[in-house]
Amino acid sequence: MTSVKAPLARLAARPGAVLFPAFGLILLVPLAAAFIPIFDGGAVGNLKRAFSDPRFLRSFGYGVSQAAASAALAAVVGLPGAFLLAKRRFPGKRILSALSAVPFCVPPLIIAIGFVLYYGREGFLNRTLQSAFGFSEPPIRFLYSFAGVVMAHGFYNFPVVMRLVGDAWASAPKRHEDAARLLGASEARVFMTVTLPSILPALGAALSLVFLMCFYSFVIVLLFGGPGVGTPEVELYRAARFEFDRPLASSFALVETLVAMLALAAYGAFERRTVGDRRDAERSVPSRFRNGGEVFASFLYGAFIVVCFVGPLASIFVESITIRTAARSAGGFGWGNYASLFARKGFGAAIVNTILLGLSSAALAAATGFALSVGLKRTRSGIVSRLLPLLPLGVSSVVLAYGWNAAIGRPSVLAIAMVQAVSAYPFALRAIQSSVGLSDERYAEAARSLGSSRLGATLRVRLPMAAPSIASGFALAFAMSAGDANAMIAAPVSGFETLALLLFRLAGAYRLDEACAAAVILALATGSIFFLKDARDGLS
Amino acid sequence: MRTRPVSIKGGLAVLFAALVALSSSCVKKDEAQLVIYAYDSFASEWGPGPIVIPAFEAATGIKVELVVPGDAGQVLAKAIDEKKKPIADVIIGIDGNLLPKALSAGVLAPYAPRGRETIPRKLVLDDEWRLTPYDWSSFCIMWDSEKLAVPPASLEALTGPEYAKKLILMDPRTSTPGLGFVAWTAAIYGDGLSDYWKRLSPSILTMSPGWDTGYGLFTAGEAPLVISYTTSAAYHAEYETAGRYKALEFPEGHPIQIEGAGIVAKARHRKAAEAFIDFMLTPEFQSALPTTNWMYPAVEGIALPASYEYSRIPGKTLTANAAGLDDAVKTVLDALQNR
Hints:
Structural class of chain A: mainly alpha
Helix content of chain B: 25-40%
CATH superfamily of the largest domain in chain A: MetI-like
Strand order of the largest sheet of chain A: 1-2
Order of helices and strands of chain B: HEHHEHEHEEEHHEHEHEEHHHEEH
CATH topology of the largest domain in chain B: D-Maltodextrin-Binding Protein, domain 2
Number of strands of chain B: 12
Radius of gyration of chain B: 23 Å
Mean pLDDT of chain A: 80
Largest sheet of chain B: 12 strands, mixed
Helix content of chain A: over 70%
Number of helices of chain B: 13
CATH class of the largest domain in chain A: Mainly Alpha
Number of domains of chain B: 2
Number of domains of chain A: 2
Oligomer: heterodimer
CATH architecture of the largest domain in chain B: 3-Layer(aba) Sandwich
Mean pLDDT of chain B: 88
Low-confidence stretches of chain B: 1-6
């Protein structure tokens, strides 16, 4: 009997040993299934065919250059915000911080609509400028060009830079800065030699992450990129859907994923240096503004953010309360769009489904995050243990959803929950790791020496200590799930609708006003989750 | 400290319950007597689906499972994937441009439906009746008369400098009307296709991923010209004030999009599938189409709503060559990308 029992007991004693491969599976099974068609007629031949197609390299050139430019813009816009979040106290700080929900929770289609309503030829800015200065043609014309793509991506994603760098900046060891000051270094020198090196890894990580997100972008690139422009994602879609050339589509997907893996490796390298041992990091307390110059500069920055970034988001809100007349001109404001949205058959079900799906995928993501963070703490290196937690960042959820569909034969809500969990767990992991990293191993050791099993020590010591940050990771994953429609668009489950999917269908059924109303509700819900999470985490 | 483990257990219990509820909600009993794949706008609450599917069930007593894999391209892609062991019995939404792919994949089985003689000859896409046409409309350029005083008079005129950045198209790689416009220009210009698109390029504001987004930009006033269907004018007349948005008729002629449905080869419920195809040609089904799918019924003699007075049928109809379309798309993209 012991021969059976012993390995089982050993497994139970090492939750990491079970969970680690299990979570590898929910990622790798659909991924493998998505790549299988590449062997249809020979993988080498298919890859050769892909590479000899001129649109293939052209699309990669465009995809990489727009993503790099977008990441650079996001960094420029995000860095001042990172400083403000980390080092200063001011009214409205939580709102600035809650903007970091936008890149994760507001779907790109909504961002695109917001940009059109605001920067478009008939948008708010052009109409205002034209009526103020009497221009005959709209003066702002960058939207439908490379610059438009970069602007939309840069502003969409700057909160990522702001958040990641801000977190690192806040926990940059103040003692070192103080020591440098004591030794007579100027503020500029302190920044260059002490502060900057401590935030560079976070900046690198943020840049790689934004690059990845823009590299996989679809709607914004097609809409603003100019006629005929192509990214790998667009060509993949065309090969799969219009040419019915699955092997070619798989080749695109494989190469695309490999390129993404490079960015991912960079992210991993930076991220590892960011999440170091922070036990000696005393968070410096944010101070008030030091002088009038700071106040003025911050005010300018705030105004810039409001005009360039909040403007498009606000346009969505304005559109949602605009009542259109029969000739499609604005006929005043009111809540009519919301009323018809709420009265829609299936709206209640969509809310319930959003919550159920969000709870499930967040539970999976948080459990994965916790198991991996405990596991990662034990294993020191190993390429698998380092890459596995990050892998989902380099894989589009569309590919995963297709993969599940191919693997189990029919669309399933559970598969969608798993796809969303996989997309969210790197972020949940990040939230959890910071506290599992911080939690003192001595408590777990003490519990074990008092006779507690490994599992017991994990459940009774590590889990409670990490509980607040698990809750953070959970909230983050829930919000991401609520805002995600990609997985369900790629593998629709008949009769199952969520708020995000309803939003897409409304926009697709030419009911833009109601779609904007749904977007506002979605943004408020996910935004307030972030807001509460921040309040809980003591970021104020 | 004692409360925390309890709350964790409580939380875990709630989550477990959510997972169970979710997984039970997606376990479905296989009691359908007919499985139909349709594109999203057909099945949506604004489309014909909610009217015609219950009507069919009431008339025949056959229980239908309507599955929505996505747009028409995804409907066909899924049917091709499942070719060896088909799940669908009927697929809806195969148009003239998708048909060659469906035929060469061999996913459709012939069935000559009852009432086929009521369909005009020019709408019949396959002589073996592997596809039964159920509705159609003409492609055209829609014009916003409030934003642009003088509309273009022809496809050629669209290339004029006065229309710089005034035209919204859809990407032929991702959208059916986008593909339709390429087919249109290919039918008119033939070998001059690449040159035409190089001349047209300055007039294009954007090529949106799908018809809905592009048409949304058009009604938001971003550009006064957009590729759509003549029946769009009827839509505006029905729900808004007629007259602002007009369908332009070009002397070169207009291609038509014909949508059809077919029975899947080796369908599990063949008899029920035949009954459904027959039903698609009845007045009950056909008269639902003009105001839900915004297309003309394929069967002649179906009464049209008053708003269809604003959708004129173009004098000259073109037949586009669907077989060479992949090459045409390649030519167009090369012309656009190597300006």
